[in-house]
Amino acid sequence: xxxxxxxxxxxxxxxxxxxxxxxxxxxxxxxxxxxxxxxxxxxxxxxxxxxxxxxxxxxxxxxxxxxxxxxxxxxxxxxxxxxxxxxxxxxxxxxxxxxxxxxxxxxxxxxxxxxxxxxxxxxxxxxxxxxxxxxxxxxxxxxxxxxxxxxxxxxxxxxxxxxxxxxxxxxxxxxxxxxxxxxxxxxxxxxxxxxxxxxxxxxxxxxxxxxxxxxxxxxxxxxxxxxxxxxxxxxxxxxxxxxxxxxxxxxxxxxxxxxxxxxxxxxxxxxxxxxxxxxxxxxxxxxxxxxxxxxxxxxxxxxxxxxxxxxxxxxxxxxxxxxxxxxxxxxxxxxxxxxxxxxxxxxxxxxxxxxxxxxxxxxxxxxxxxxxxxxxxxxxxxxxxxxxxxxxx
Length: 393
Hints:
Layout: E1 7-8, E2 17-18, H1 46-49, E3 52-57, H2 63-78, E4 82-87, H3 92-105, E5 109-112, H4 121-129, E6 134-137, E7 149-153, H5 155-170, E8 187-191, H6 199-218, E9 221-222, H7 230-233, H8 240-255, E10 264-266, H9 270-282, E11 295-296, H10 303-310, E12 317-319, H11 322-337, E13 359-362, E14 365-367, H12 372-377, H13 384-389
Helix pairs in contact: 2-11, 5-6, 8-9
């Protein structure tokens, strides 16, 4: 994936940079423009400050995290900073060792998207002892006072949007997400949640379930398996194969040999969605959503799922423009390195069990087939050719 462009406009910080659009993939392309970024109280350029920033990402098994790592690295490099970018390969000890090495090498700041938000207490204490500021990236790090800032999306709202898209797919709501159609069902749905060691997964689940609950209470929605509690429906490490296996088991235990038909699935991530869709197709469901294929939600606007949405197989996804997230992480890191603090727009929501971590929250959008062009293509996130092929250039 190639990094196209992102704009950092940190509130209260004199920082602005952009990376020019270039042909190819979605978020993550190589920069073609020069930066003209200034900041700090002495009026000097950021490139004069210099320094090395460690960036720890959780995995390369998801195109989303590759794009995030590339985007953060590109933004920092554009401003003249050295970057130590590492991917943890979904292995907690590997990520911990990578962060240990970054601290030992003397990085000036850390940007961490944790594999397990509870497993880095020792590393964060070492960072604090070395006066290295720590920015949690999209996933809150729990159980430590040594988390200085958090950049993420409004994760509860993401969950609301996932549930809203499912209700639209079922025909209960119009595409505006507000207007009820008068459809009363009952519609049979199943619930999936994200990894229990990812703090965001709980926010997604809570936002979604709070949105669905009135329709469950009214009988408009029914969960035939009766599996709705977070621990039961959570998919460890967000693994596609695990989601596929659980969907296969649900079909076998609840639907096969009965008159029940599945109408929709709440899925919190595109990788899980594709596993769920594969299980449904193997289990005898076929065609498109318009033909009666179960409506499946998602998240991250991964190109393979965007293609499925364009083909009316997956119903929707949530677009979290990670270019903006990467830009905000860069803005926040630079603020610390210049001796200040990033400006937060939320100082109440994200309690990691030890402290409320000051945060900057970004907005997200629901992607349907009808707005792929306006949200993803026109913004340069994906090209029309990539959407048609389902592959990044």
